[in-house]
Write a structure and sequence with these properties.
about 90 residues, mainly alpha, about 0% strand, globular, ATP-binding, P-loop_NTPase
Length: about 90
């Protein structure tokens, strides 16, 4: 997938070894900037899919808003934030 080394280290540290089906199909199109609609069962790695796609493109030196993630509840927003920070601290 040609991901950055820092991101790969975070992914492996999180415990991922092999991408799930949804990750295999959606990460590259997301990174390339395509509009992606992905639907999968709970626990299949949807959060990781969009988080990895976003983190691959974020420039840490640029101190401006580069991505916006919307969640329907505060609880889900906090879960997403925790997950994203485990892959690569932003």
């Amino acid at each position: 997938m040609n991901l950055s080394e820092a991101l790969l280290r975070g992914i492996y540290a999180y415990g991922f070894e092999k991408p799930s089906a949804i990750q295999q199909r959606a990460i590259l199109p997301c990174i390339k900037g395509y509009d992606v609609i992905a639907q999968a069962q709970s626990g299949t790695g949807k959060t990781a899919t969009f988080a990895i796609s976003i983190l691959q493109q974020v420039e840490l030196e640029l101190k401006a808003t580069q991505a916006l993630v919307l969640a329907p509840t505060r609880e889900l927003a906090q879960q997403v934030s925790t997950s994203v920070n485990q892959y690569k601290p932003v």
